[in-house]
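Lab notebook, design round three. We kept the backbone fixed and only want residue identities now. Task for the bench partner: fill in a sequence for the structure below.
Input structure tokens:
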């Protein structure tokens, strides 16, 4: 199943409703990240000389940082009731 996470600041949200409920902003101000399968508990922001990306998988983090030893990785937790409901499935 394809899902979309919304990243705003140092937090990610499982839905537009959660984004508005917790951060009080609309989806237009957040960065969207596509996730396949179960909703992750965290996503990763990778900053390097080539730019910045937000990825949901540690494998992607490894591939992005392997060529950029100066890269910084930030762990971003996913908030919202939708994430908790998806764990039951």
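Proposed sequence:
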């Amino acid at each position: 199943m394809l899902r979309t996470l919304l990243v705003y600041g140092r937090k990610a949200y499982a839905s537009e409703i959660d984004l508005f409920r917790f951060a009080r902003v609309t989806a237009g101000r957040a960065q969207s990240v596509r996730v396949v399968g179960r909703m992750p508990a965290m996503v990763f922001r990778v900053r390097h000389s080539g730019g910045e990306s937000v990825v949901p998988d540690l494998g992607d983090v490894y591939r992005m940082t392997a060529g950029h030893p100066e890269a910084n990785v930030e762990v971003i937790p996913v908030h919202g009731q939708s994430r908790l409901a998806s764990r039951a499935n």
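Keep this in mind before ordering anything: The first helix runs from residue 16 to 23.
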